[in-house]
Amino acid sequence: MMRAITAAPMASAMMGMIMIWMIAMPREVMAGASLSDDEKKEIVYGMYAGYKKKFPAVTDVSPLKAMALMKAGKVVFLDIRTAEEMAVSALPGAISKEAFLLHPAFYHDHIIIGYCTISYRSGKFAEEMAAKGIQIRNLAGGLLAWVLEGGKVYENGAETRRIHVYGKKWNYPPAGYDSVVFRPLERLF
């Protein structure tokens, strides 16, 4: 009888340790590892089409159109992701949501294109800003579509081949790119 009483707290502690390990450890992110880049594009644009239904009034800009606007010097990229995600990689010259919100009028003479991993968060943000009279276009398919279409990303001003994909569901970077996914606990803080 004594063993059963002392074993229960130990089993409970062991279960707690296993649960912490499962939550804290990074997960294997192999969702798109065996697919061609064309197959990944199809998946990314398909996911975005589903998300787009939640902000139908927001104007989309394709990655190829955004690249052309960038070359013409007419665009400001607005990264809606966290600072930690941006530190992994960002579009050329991208500004953070926080920097934009400090002085949105400063960018009135540019085409503002918001983005995030797949452009769901940026689409919702563009919708919020439209209610305040500020037009932000949304990069169709987000950072994933950008790199799948041949766009470059940068880390600390230097070109990189790493992108933060947020989680396994969105792990569709082009061949030759490394996916970065924060541990589940890191997403909470």
Provide a descriptive summary of the structure in words.
This protein has 189 residues and is of the alpha/beta class. It has one domain (2-188): Rhodanese-like domain (Oxidized Rhodanese, domain 1, 3-Layer(aba) Sandwich). Helix content is 44%, strand content 15%. The protein has 8 helices and 9 strands. It has helices spanning 2-24, 37-52, 63-71, 83-88, 97-102, 120-130, 142-148, 184-188, and strands at 60-61, 75-79, 95-96, 111-115, 137-139, 153-155, 158-160, 162-164, 178-180. Strands 1-5-4-2-3 form a 5-stranded parallel beta sheet. A two-stranded antiparallel ribbon has the order 6-7. Helix 2 (37-52) packs antiparallel against helix 7. The longest helix has 23 residues, at 2-24. The radius of gyration is 20 Å and the shape is globular. The N and C termini lie far apart (44 Å). Mean pLDDT is 86; it is low at 17-31 and 185-189.
